[in-house]
Amino acid sequence: MTQPTDIRGEHLHTALSLAASGVPVLPLRAGKVPFGNCRGCAGNACGGRPNMKTPGPCACPAPCHGWAAAATDPGVINSPTWARVWSDAAAVAYHPGGAGLTVVDLDNPAAIAWARKTLPATRTVPTTRGEHWLYQGAMQSANAVRPGVDIKSTMAYARWLGPGTGTITALPPMVRALAVREPSTVRPMPQAVSVPALAGGGECPHRTPAYLHRGITMAEQRITDACGAVHATVYRTFLAVLSTHGRCGCLTDAHMTRLFTAAQAKGETPRHCTDAWANARTRLGL
Description:
Blueprint: H1 5-20, E1 25-29, E2 33-34, H2 74-77, H3 80-86, E3 91-94, E4 101-106, H4 109-118, E5 123-126, E6 131-136, E7 142-146, E8 149-152, E9 158-159, E10 169-170, H5 173-178, H6 183-186, H7 209-224, H8 230-245, H9 253-265, H10 270-284
Parallel strand pairs: 6-10
Antiparallel strand pairs: 1-2, 1-3, 3-9, 4-6, 4-8, 5-6, 7-8
Helix pairs in contact: 7-8, 7-9, 8-10
């Protein structure tokens, strides 16, 4: 159903205002979903890749390809082609990553309670069922990083619900760590690996909290201090950690997340981290 002129004008005004501040925008249709690709782009015929990860090389002026259609050019947003789309738009969305932002989407009261206890305070925007927490800095998007929590940044869109309240703060490492979802990054080391008994029947020294904490802290620092050859440094550091702690089951999800977060802060991707960890385990026969 076509929107009333005042609502359509309000959506367009909001979109142009956001675009003027450098926020890429796109229209949403009913159901909070993007408009479908045009006939020329249907089925990725124009060259767009599956899952809309990149827009195709077509010159289509319509808002195709989901988040990839987000624009800041007022000539595009206010063009005749887009004007026809705005007449059917139900809301305005934006591409957080394109604006250098990350949205932590909290979908219920329990998720909000977790965020207030765990995450640094930042700008918040009320949503229908919860809140959006906005941080300065872009990262990979990820759904269901924990119950009721999604991360929307690069290659994603978020509905515009107003400017929110509070001062926006820098994207914290703990939010980046939430997106590390590869199986090998979240499972503890296998407990069934055979370890020779210590002389005298003493406990494994690796289970001493101070010993393990010091080792992980040193590994983080080694990665952080790398001035070059980051790939090699990350691999050698993972190898050293696993050679010391990999056979006694001392490592936990939290330890691996700390190492992966340090590596990603130096520019490594989650895939590179996962591969380096897997290669180190293979070399050690774990």
